[in-house]
Amino acid sequence: MAESDLVEGLIGGDFDLEGTPDLASPGAAEGATGAPAPGEYQAAEADLAAASARAPRFADPLKAWGDLLAQGRWRQALVKYDDAMKYAPAWKQLHEARRIAAKGLR
User: Please, what sign has the CA dihedral across residues 24, 6, 11, 95?
Assistant: First the structure.
């Protein structure tokens, strides 16, 4: 397969997404952003754990879980970021989030 064929396939949007996990975060349809409201932290963590279980080789739910934990639980956030790096070692935002979490331990 020529590189131009690969690029054309990507640009053309001819993707077969059947069988890919649904990782939409709860609240995404409602436009929820930022930190969970008081009392919703445990539910958010449970949702991210479920998303990670549905897609065990995807870095996205692990990073989001780390982002949630980075609200004071720095050591646990680092574990999630390190797990995510196994699947997305070149993800710049993940590296930055991990750097900030490591700084939070000091």
Answer: positive
d(CA 43, CA 63): 17
Q: What is the pTM of this model?
A: 0.67
Give the closest residue to 72 by CA, choosing from 98, 105, 25, 38. Answer: 105
Assigned domain for 17 exists: no
CB-side exposure of 21: number of CA atoms within 13 Å? 15
pLDDT along the chain (106 residues), means of 10: 48 52 48 67 94 95 96 95 97 97 90
The number of domains in the chain is 1
Domain membership of residue 99 as a residue range: 42-106
Residue 54 — φ and ψ, nearest 5°? -70, -25
Structure tokens given for 44: 């958010």
Per-residue confidence (pLDDT) for residue 6, from 0 to 100: 45
